[in-house]
Amino acid sequence: MTGPTPLTLASIRQAPKAVLHDHLDGGLRPATVLALAEDCGYDQLPATDATSLAQWFREAADSGSLERYLETFTHTVAVMQTPEGLRRVARECAQDLAADGVVYAEVRFAPEQHLERDLTLDEVVEHTLAGFREGEQLAAEEGTPIRVVCLLTAMRHAARSREIAELTVRFRDRGVGGFDIAGAEAGYPPSRHLDAFEYMRSNCAQFTIHAGEAFGLPSIHEAVAFCGCDRLGHGVRITDDITDAAGTGPVLGLVANYVRDKRIPLELCPSSNVQTGAVPSLEKHPFDVLARLRFRVTVNTDNRLMSDTDMSREMLKLVDTFGYGWSDLERFTINAMKSAFIPFPERLRIIDEVIKPGYAVLIG
User: Fold this and answer.
1) Catalytic site residues (predicted)?
2) pLDDT digits (tens, 9 = 90+) for 37-67
3) 240 assigned ligand-binding residue
4) Which of 20, 192, 299, 356 is most buried, by CB atoms within 10 Å?
């Protein structure tokens, strides 16, 4: 026992991590985008080499607007329209996460956006799951085992949420763990998709909802009170219901109290939240306030390509900004595993056999 390992990017990369909010179409390797574009004849990319393309994605995403941020996905989705493209992206996603020390990952994508080459929804999911399984096997062979669970997303501006919910239930014993809705929040409240959420609940299936990112407290209220979500995608605007007018300490409103009391996990994505304008800066991100108030906060990447990030870099940013130590990072990781969309015994096994022993070595 020689004391804690210094907190650096390299040492954090060795720590076991769990990510709940990672978008498949937001995590492609720039070189893969170029290769797949050539294979499928897509000629609308804004750059022709990997370095320039990576820079373009980062700069385009740094707009401070969720709507403009979402426009970058036009290019990644365009090259994910074939069986080969879907399998490759999913395979490399699993490998890249594992190489970063992620031992459990929930990766989401919207099957309805991958039908331009006449694939069916079921075929899209089948090829993507096959890619994840290939990536898991390769990662295990490389000595970095990972468990990847897929979440299926419905676009909140479209009208296919019930169909995607049914697709989720159909594949839930084959690698799909849950359901989600995503896309621009303003004008598209989660309550528009009540039939999908009712279908999920009637089938004892789990779901998360993008809420409280670009839009405020009403989005969160609908997600938890009307839709009954198991987790909140982002949820940073929960702070709109936390006040300190008297200067005596934070006072939680009804929604904030409900979210904390029910232990509804917050899928916080620090870098992305700054890029989309959900928070003005990392220093003003409510992560630390929410963590100190004992909300169930989790650390996530959202879109690794657009934010030029990974889980280790997200954790290091929190360490540098808020002064966290290894025990804090362990708590955030256990929060994520407690909230995972897999059976309780499997969650407990990963916590007890992988996460706690891994952090014990680093804590010293």
Assistant:
1) 213
2) 999 999 999 999 999 999 999 998 888 877 7
3) no
4) 20
